[in-house]
Amino acid sequence: MNRFFYYLILIIIAPLLSVVEANIEKETLTSTSDVVPVNIINGIEEWAKKHALVTLRPPYAIQRYEMIVPFPNAEISSVLQSGDKERWYILDELDQRHTYEARISYAASSPTEFVMDILGIEETAAILKERGVLEELADHKDAKVNTTRRVLRVRAIYAGVSIVPGRESQAIKYNIVLETLTYGIPYVAIKLVIVLVAIIGVSLFLIVPSVWKVLQTIRELEEVNQKLE
User: Where are the transmembrane segments (predicted)?
Assistant: First the structure.
């Protein structure tokens, strides 16, 4: 009977074990609140609006078919340029002490290593100032607010070897997701887990006993027939 249960559970979860031909990179964060000067927040908001940055909000947000040009091998550590070789996203409306996962998926046929950095507002402002992207902001020491907002920086490094000229500079297509984690389980998987548990529960406590009873009856009949013969 234990073996029967084993095979039944395998049949139920088999569709979930199928392999998808895609690579996945992910970063997790537990949200905290930072005290940030209002002028820095305003500067980041203006910069985000000017460059039409995508804002990702929990519990689940996905941006499909994004494009990024990868850096050549080992170039990323020293480069300061942005543009097509770097993508930024605003992570907004995060709840304190909640855990989130930022996840990138891309085709396995693209030999790429994605680098994801989740930055605070002031850390982002410092990077942009160093690059000359964000103008020097007036100092308002008394005007500060609490924020859980974060900024996600995405970069990619070409990780393959190709004989095709220029292959390493071709844009890579990817999808990016921000998702709330509940006890380590992604938001969209919660319903699937509930349905799976319900199916297994119904199978174990209703279907399996009935089937097992029928099998026992058949076995007993066979034993009776053998004795009569």
Answer: 188-212
pLDDT per position as a tens digit, 202-216: 767 777 777 777 778
Burial class (CB in 10 A: 0-12, 13-18, 19+), 40: buried
How many CA atoms lie within 13 Å of 96's alpha carbon, on the beta-carbon side? 5
Q: Model confidence over 78-129: pLDDT tens digits?
A: 555 556 689 999 999 999 999 999 999 999 888 899 999 999 999 999 999 8
Contact 115, 74 (CB under 8 A): no
Domains of the chain, residue spans: 20-188
Given a cut of 60, is residue 13 above it in pLDDT?
A: no
Q: Which two tokens stand for residue 22?
A: 């895609």
CA angle (20 as vertex; 26, 105 as ends), nearest 5: 30
- Parallel/antiparallel/unpaired status of strands 22-30 and 112-119: unpaired
43/48 Cα distance (integer angstroms): 9
Which pLDDT value is given to residue 222?
78
Distance between CA atoms of residues 67 and 171, nearest Å: 6
